[in-house]
Specification:
Number of strands: 7
Structural class: alpha/beta
Helix content: 40-55%
Oligomer: single chain
Shape: globular
Length: 266
């Protein structure tokens, strides 16, 4: 079980911390040679060091997914170093929640969309041909519950995630015939450096929400590990346990979240 991904190479964007680092550790624990990329090399090296300390194979490579030349150079380096890429997790993302959209400085819009949406286009553009040549692979895009529900004061982030979901469903159909499975995971609020918080009202009925969201290492690694072992359902959207708990606690159409993958084409 622990070596189910032996011989495979995986790439996690935004793998220096938070959800990305947790996914990288899980992939490595399952036997994959795991590459983490992002803009801050020191954080990436820390994650890769954790992978190696646990007995896995980890590599850190600097890359800005919002820069096509940077992504193309990364793909060339991966090809030369490893000769293949079997699993790609598009996790890199940034947010902006400074107020209503009509107050958002125009210069803040592009960084959010360029990282969260254009960056995924760039990585798929660079790495899908490598997977096609190898006869298949898996692409997992990390979206958000904000890609299914409204996010007041975070419209740009929400727009990028709605767009990412649509991109995923479409690319899943495009690559299905090449034996490449493309799926999207939509986490709920998660206590990471990206979105630090302690949860809501831990001593009352929201204790379930707090437990579900307080630790990325528990929820996201479990969810991703299960998805990996089942080879995904192409074009489907998986909600983390945190997403389900949060939606039900807020009474946000709980029937939309049934056993992980619902309300998505594919």
């Amino acid at each position: 079980m622990n070596n189910v991904l032996n011989g495979r190479t995986a790439l996690v964007t935004g793998g220096g911390r938070g959800i990305g680092a947790a996914i990288a550790l899980k992939l490595a624990a399952l036997g994959a040679t795991t590459i983490v990329c992002g803009r801050t090399l020191a954080r990436l090296q820390h994650t890769a060091g954790q992978v190696r300390a646990a007995g896995g194979q980890g590599e850190a490579m600097a890359c800005d997914v919002a820069d096509w030349n940077s992504v193309a150079a990364l793909a060339e380096r991966v090809q030369k170093t490893f000769g293949r890429l079997d699993i790609m997790v598009n996790n890199a993302g940034i947010g902006w929640s400074g107020g209503p959209l009509h107050t958002m400085p125009p210069e803040k819009w592009d960084p959010v969309l360029n990282t969260n949406l254009r960056g995924v286009f760039y990585t798929i553009r660079a790495f899908a041909p490598m997977m096609i040549s190898a006869g298949g692979g898996d692409i997992v895009n990390i979206s958000s519950i904000a890609g299914k529900n409204a996010l007041p004061n975070g419209a740009a982030y929400s727009a990028s995630k709605w767009g990412l979901n649509g991109l995923t469903y479409s690319v899943a159909e495009e690559l299905r015939g090449h034996n490449i499975r493309v799926s999207v995971i939509c986490p709920g609020s998660t206590h990471t450096e990206f979105s630090p918080h302690e949860g809501k009202s831990p001593v009352n009925r929201r204790a379930r929400y707090t437990r579900a969201t307080s630790k990325v290492s528990r929820n996201e690694r479990r969810l991703f590990g299960a998805s990996t072992l089942h080879s995904f359902l192409p074009g489907r959207c998986f909600f983390s346990p945190a997403s389900v708990s949060a939606a039900r606690d807020r009474h946000d159409e709980p029937d939309r979240f049934d056993r992980g993958a619902r309300d998505c084409p594919g």
